[in-house]
Amino acid sequence: MQRVRLLVFNAALGVLDYRVPQGVTIPFGSIVAAPLGPRQILGIVWEAERLSAQEVPDAKLRPLLEVMPVPPMSERLRRLIEWTADYYCAPLSAVARMALGSTAALRGGGTSTEYRLTGAEPARLTPQRAAALDALQGEQASIRELAELAGVSEGVLRGMVGAGLLEAVTVDLDRPYPPAAPDFAQPVLSDLQRSAADVFVHAVQDARFAPFLLDGVTGSGKTECYFEAVAEALRLDRQVLILLPEIALTENFLRRFEHRFGVTPILWHSSLKSSERRRAWRAIVQGNAQVIVGARSALFLPYANLGLIVVDEAHEISFKQDDGVRYNARDVAVMRAKFEGLPIILASATPALETMQLAEAGVYRKIDLPSRFGGAQLPDIQVLDLREQAPERGRWLAPPLVEALRDRLAKGEQSLLFLNRRGYAPLTLCRNCGYRFQCPNCTAWLVEHRFSRRLACHHCGHEAPVPDACPECGTGDCLVACGPGVERIADEVAEILPEARTALVTSDTMNNPQAIGEFVAMAESKAIDVIIGTQLVTKGYHFPDLTLVGVVDADLGLEGGDLRAGERTYQQIAQVAGRAGRGEKPGEVLIQTRHPEASVIAALANGDRDAFYAAETEARRDAGAPPFGRWAAIIVSSEDQAEALSAARAIGGTAPDLPDMLVLGPAPAPLALLRGRHRFRLLINARRSAELQKTLRSWLDPLDFPKGVRVNIDIDPYSFV
Ligand SMILES: Nc1ncnc2c1ncn2[C@@H]1O[C@H](COP(=O)(O)OP(=O)(O)OP(=O)(O)O)[C@@H](O)[C@H]1O
Ligand SMILES: [Zn+2]
Question: So where does Zn(2+) 1 get bound (predicted)?
Answer without folding.
Answer: 430, 433, 470, 473
